[in-house]
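Lab notebook, bench 4. Still working through the backlog of constructs that have no structural model yet. Next entry is a single chain of 139 residues. Request: give me the structure tokens for it.
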Amino acid sequence: IKSMNDKIKKDLIFPKGEKASNQVFVWDARVQTLVPWDNGFNCPIYNVTFEPWARNNWHKHPWWQILLITEGKWYYQEKGEKAQVIKKWDIVLIKPDVEHWHGASEDSQLIHLAISTNIDKWIVEWWKPVVDEEYNNLD
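Model written out:
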């Protein structure tokens, strides 16, 4: 007998990685480094898995970021804008210095590849968590 977890493990493209810090994520998320930022490519790549309800804090990057969605339904929101529903196979292009957050929907796991482009140093500015009240009022 195979469990659903066996099917999920078999279907994963990349490993889930280590549990992410609760200082910058709400609920459970995991991060697997695929290409480290200091390897000469200046283009770190991470596989990030968000469990249902999980999201990261408000933050911004000083460089472009590309999110390639490989699984799930989730939310992406830029400061001052309405949250967008994003689904599997979508691509999100985030401009430098745009304050934003992203995370899984309440009923779906989210998996995405996060690619940061042309970085010369690793600086992400993290702010306050996206609290349940904000998350529950996305419509």
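Notes after review: The radius of gyration is 15 Å. The CA atoms of residues 59 and 126 lie 4 Å apart. Flag for follow-up if needed.
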